[in-house]
Amino acid sequence: MTLLAGVLSVSSNNTLNDVEPGLLGFLVVAGIGVVLVFLLRSMNKQFRKLPPPEEPEETGTGGASGYDDADANAEDAKRG
User: Fold this and answer.
1) Maximum CA pair distance of the chain?
2) First-to-last CA distance in the chain?
């Protein structure tokens, strides 16, 4: 009995181990690719509709950080 099972498992015409995706697998992957292309095009269209980011206005003469003497005096007053 075990000899028969061993011979059946070794035979090369066993179709249980020869599974391939076939046409259905190709159509699913191709469909996902087509949907992805349309989603990317739509996303790019939506990004083009967005306004450009606003630049922050420079206030005061405190240099690049925007920290000036008025801020320093206010903090000194808070400390007491």
Assistant:
1) 97
2) 97
